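Can you please make up a whole protein chain along with its backbone structure tokens because I've never seen that pairing?
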Amino acid sequence: MGGVEKSARKRRKRRNIQAAVLTTIGAAGVITVAMIAPNALAALPALIGKDRYKATFQAKTALGRLAAKGHVRFFEKNGRKSVELTEAGRRAMLLKLARETEQAKRKKRWDHRYRLVMFDIPQKRKSVRDRLRRLMRECGFLRVQNSVWISPYDCEELVMLIKTDLRLGTSVLYAVVEEIENDTWIKKHFELK
């Protein structure tokens, strides 16, 4: 079990570093590759520790992963290698910011409505369906059924960003409902009153 936990921590750390690099590039617009490590990882001192060489390596590795995903593109500017966000990178950054906003909303009072996210994604797009389920879980939704997820908090903007990012269109439905029968277990899960 310890190996699984360690592997999950490593993946989380890698995602956090990639998110920091993505946000730094997004904030700067265009940035030289040499400036990525000091700017991006300054926001994550717990991740970099005292080893600046390792931090630079981690930032450049994250940059390579982001380029492989199509979130950033490299180009020459004034004789220096620079990097900027692609449209996919902008969507990923907006999705990250929306997730953080959703987490902040959870501290607010519940308005006694539930938000349902329902989807019907064909088997040929199984990887997209699995990614959507993973995003639902990461964003704090509760699975009611395989393709039905619920949240007590307003998350319409987040759902729209996810639909756009995954190119799901009408395959995903968002609904706001006043009441769900036998919702005691849902209220208990979200610690609602």
Observations:
- The first strand starts at residue 30 and ends at 32.
